[in-house]
Amino acid sequence: MDLILRKDNLNEAYKQVKKNKGKGGIDGMQVDELLPFLREKQESLIQVIKEGKYKPNPVRRVEIPKETKGEFRKLGVPTVTSYCTPPNDVLECCLQLA
User: Fold this and answer.
1) Mind listing the pLDDT tens digit for each residue in 13-34?
2) What is the pTM of this model?
3) DSSP of the chain
């Protein structure tokens, strides 16, 4: 877990979220608001994850139209902070770096 939570890996996760231009979840935070939030909360966020007490926010449910008219696919949109915490982009970035 310490390897995953290294600052260079977390920074890589942030860069990936920024590059993907993800939309915000139910907390209303947008990607451009993420960096100041992470700078302020990074240490406490890492500590909560290490202690096993991190609980991701609920996802925002959206419906995306299918090619078949009148049918929709349900999609859960996580918050942008959830994108930057395990098991999301941090783990994906680590797997790509390994």
Assistant:
1) 788 778 877 667 777 788 888 8
2) 0.61
3) -TTTT-HHHHHHHHHHHHHHTPPP-TT---GGGHHHHHHHHHHHHHHHHHTT---PPPPEEEEEE-SSTT-EEEEEE--HHHHTSTTSHHHHHHHHH-
